[in-house]
Amino acid sequence: MTKPIERRAVLRSTTCGVAVSLGLPFMDCFLNVHGTALAASGTKLPVVFGTWWQGLGFTPGRWIPKKVGANYENNVELKAFDPFRDRMNIISGTKYFLDGRPVETHTTGWQIAATGAIPIGGQSGPSLDMMIADVIGKTTRFRSLEVSLDGSRGSFSNRSGSVRNPSEPSPVALYARIFGPEFKDPNAAEFTPSPAILARQSVLSYLKDERQQIMGMVGASDRARLDEYFTSLRQIEQQLDIELQKPAPLESCVVPGKPEEAPPRSTIGEVAKNNKLFGALLAHAVACGQTQVFNVVLGSGGLRKPGDARGWHQYTHDEPVDDSLGYQREVTSFIDFANGAFVDFLRELDGMREGAGSVLDRTVIVWQTDHGYARTHTMDNLPILTVGSAGGRLRTGLHVSAPGDPATRVGLTLQQALGVPIQTWGALSNETSKTMTDILA
Amino acid sequence: MTRRVLGNGLIAAAVCGLAALPILSSGVAESAVQGSAPEALVRRLTAEQYQNIIADVFGPTIELGGRFEPDMRADGLVAVGASKVSVSPTGLEQYETMARTIAAQIVDEKRRGMMIPCKPAAENAADDACTRQFMVQVGRLLYRRPLTGAELDAYVGAAALGAKLTGNYYDGVGLGLAGMLSSPKFIFRVDVTGSKPDRSGEYQLDSYSKASHLSFFLWNSGPDAELLDAAASGDLTTKRGLARQVERMLASRRLEAGVRAFFIDMFGFDQFSALAKDTTLYPKFSTKSATDAQEQTLKTIIDRVLIERGDYREIFTTRKTYLTQELAAIYKVPLATIQPNGAPDSWEAYEFAPEDPRAGILTHASFTALHSHPGISSPTLRGKALREVIFCQKVPAPPGNVEFDLVNNVAYKTARDRLKAHASEAVCAGCHKITDPAGLALENFDTAGTFRTTENGEPIDTSAVFDGKNIKGPADLGRAAYEHPATTSCLVNRIAAYGRGGVARSDRPWLTELESAFKKSGYRLPELMKAIALSDQFYRPAPVQSAPETSASAPPRLGTVTPVSTERRQ
């Protein structure tokens, strides 16, 4: 590890325009996750992990395929996924365990899905995506990117109970963050380390020196919180390190045009438009080596149709089951919309071609929800979807039935597939060491 | 782990037919600080505090150029949640961006003459002596204490290195300043406990931490130079010296900013940033309406409690308020303006007629619109807000496995009918008695806060039995809030926790004393603030707090039908 004083010594010995990067360590960003191949060489590109958080479940009897295993036929509510059937998995039957704790509707399920446990006293472990990002995301400019489609800054991505990664609700702001002036085009012919970034880096190294002093002033719990500040600081430093390196060429990287967004609100037209913009931006971000982890919150609760007094969430409670149909008509229309939005998002990833494959091919996205059936807030028979094979690390095209098993089995399996060195994940009854071997390649 | 205890009286829960659970008045955490010298409390500056400090130190025209991480709410307050949060990488990226943006403005050609108290020997090289002067001056205000020698050396060194890298003295100073603004010592407020216990054997904060406590409490910003001088001279350790500063700060115009900040926090006005109404159904409710709605309530409160020095409880009954044309359109009242043609909309004093059902802040759009769904009003959400926000009573989350078949908009035209049908189910029968009566009394207001007398063509009945009292509608509900004992005890609890960073079980005697002083003053808020600012307990290290309730960055809670306890015991 480079000590601050050493870095400053290096920087002091240089002047603007000199190839300062020579004094800095060779960056791992040229390696794939195995650390075996340079991305620039055209060999296997690194894996990508994504989450899609869509609340309010599906309708019992309308989503589980009749056939278990391969070659299943999608049930009516999942017909929209037909084009991706062989590149995804449906996991049915799992549940969230409460262990006697009171259920906080539309909250507890998310907590278990994201972290494997119900937080105690506000204390929470890192979320699934952070566990994975710490393995596959260390060498990208952004350890992870979070977006929400409903205008909120809500997120299920967190380092701990006191550090939640806020979502970006605006595609225009996300564009500026990724492809703004600090973006270094990997395919640009020229590269000169920016003196401004060098200077910023030198200042941040002073902040790192404050750690010991401020830690000595506070108690144990506050030390943990302040330590999280310094963890964030290390990530920013790493970001600057990467910006000081000439990036390896990435054939498929094209800087997209600045999007023209719909206002970030929660009516379906705006959500549909922003969803496609976010999908395209994240696809470009991956193709340009900016991140390998992303999180998308659909924000189902507030989703509405213009001019309708009720939204999706209210309909799940207010709308009676239509006797002739056997399900809630309006609720189902929202489920159809949301599934269509997810398919649109997948198309954006798949549309970003990388040689013979696409961004989606080296990605796995896990789709999770808060309740099996929102109308009665059930915590069992949960739908879970995974899409993409993460570059061949997962088998796809399967319907896996796991009745009564903890939903955390899926999170455990994905972490293991992406290189997180864990044998068990979750707490109490949500703890599992049972890898979902059906989908592990 | 902390456990909540009784505040304004315990409500025992008969949650939807389940076993009774102890439900409590929220906001009081069990004491976690006893015995030896307690730990210092660390709080992240709220967005508003950060902005206020920058405006105080560098002037109000400085642009921040970034966005804050969402704050977190715990025990009903962002001020308490501030001791539960850290900084995410995304958040630090923003802090660092803001620091550079601010610093660039301080050293630009337009401002450097005013901001930097000296000229460098040469503009293309470092000048440590000049930088040191600047850093000493601003560092004291930003860090709320003098910089240590090591800190000063570090930032002067950073500026020198910056000057070398950029070839420009001012850019170097800017980099040093950006470092200072990105530092955890600026972003976090660190309470430092004094080295010795006081006469009663208990520890107090050191003088500079006392100054910060006072300043953030009364002005919602860092201490000014005079307060820091008082801290340096030891004045804040004497009763007379402390009283002198408290009097000065209470008499300052800046007190209004402090009082506003407290009510913004207590009433959850930060939630307005996510408030949306269906523009097809409610075209008059715009972003400006939402902004004006908050301001209407704040102006009404400031008018009552600060300008008129009135009884705090009157904010729930006063017919006097302020309106803009935007709000007048929502309230459907004519508003005469005395502005010349073409002048921007302004605030006009307005008084609802004595027979008008609109009286008090519970009838403002800041309450009725904020606690509604985007497309429809919600008696349950409004009633829950009254219990939790105004009375500090905790309402539990709804249980799972509830059937909602009967609550549909086809068979029942009014909210009362819908809820009645819902509550007719055994599993829910006991659930809505606490929240719904107050909410039903406010059904004269649709989700945008517009007055109405019918819903779907049916007359709206706003009568209810609220905590044993028959009420006939919105104005009666305001009167009931005025008379409710929880109204004042909740205010005392919240403002004490707001100032101190939390309250604990061991604070109960202190809170009781404050309640008594508040009552004796005729419920004058400035008197309560003064009593807090002069009390020893205010300067004792704050307790470890209970778990956070919500985070602005957490996905919005979706629950709508909220079962609550029905039984109340003292």
Radius of gyration of chain B: 26 Å
Tell me what portion of residues of chain B adopts beta-strand conformation: 5-15%
Determine the number of helices of chain A (DSSP H or I, runs of at least 4 residues). 11
Just name the CATH architecture of the domain at 31-157 and 264-430 in chain A.
3-Layer(aba) Sandwich
Mean pLDDT of chain A: 87
Q: Structural class from helices and strands of chain A? A: alpha/beta
Strand order of the largest sheet of chain B: 2-1-15
The biggest beta sheet of chain A is recorded as:
8 strands, mixed
| Global shape of chain B | globular
The gross shape of chain A turns out to be globular
State the share of residues found in helices of chain A, binned by percent.
25-40%
Oligomer: heterodimer
End-to-end Cα distance of chain B: 25 Å
Number-wise, the strands of chain A total: 12
Radius of gyration of chain A: 22 Å
CATH topology description of the domain at 31-157 and 264-430 in chain A: Alkaline Phosphatase, subunit A
Number of helices of chain B: 22
* Biggest sheet overview of chain B: 3 strands, antiparallel
Q: Report low-confidence residues of chain A grouped into runs of 5 or more.
A: 1-42
Low-confidence stretches of chain B: 1-35, 545-570
**Spatial gap, N to C terminus of chain A:** 35 Å
Your description of this structure?
- The complex is a heterodimer of chains A (441) and B (570).
- With 441 residues, chain A is of the alpha/beta class.
- Chain A contains eleven helices and twelve strands.
- In chain A, the strands form three sheets. Chain A has an eight-stranded mixed sheet, with helices on both faces. In chain A, strands 5-6 form a two-stranded antiparallel sheet.
- The two termini of chain A are 35 Å apart.
- In chain B, helix 11 (239-251) packs antiparallel against helix 22.
- In chain B, the strands form seven sheets. Chain B has a three-stranded antiparallel sheet, with no helix packed on it. Chain B has a two-stranded antiparallel ribbon with strand order 3-5. In chain B, strands 4-14 form a two-stranded antiparallel sheet.
- Residues 1-35 and 545-570 of chain B have low confidence and may be disordered.
- By secondary structure, chain B is mainly alpha-helical.
- Chain B has helices spanning 47-58, 78-81, 89-106, 112-115, 128-143, 149-166, 169-182, 184-187, 207-219, 225-233, 239-251, 255-266, 287-307, 325-331, 365-368, 379-390, 415-423, 436-441, 474-483, 485-500, 508-520, 525-534, and strands at residues 10-13, 21-23, 42-44, 72-74, 188-190, 193-197, 203-205, 320-323, 348-351, 454-455, 458-459, 464-466, 469-471, 548-551, 567-569.
- In chain B, a hairpin with a 5-residue loop joins strand 6 (193-197) and strand 7.
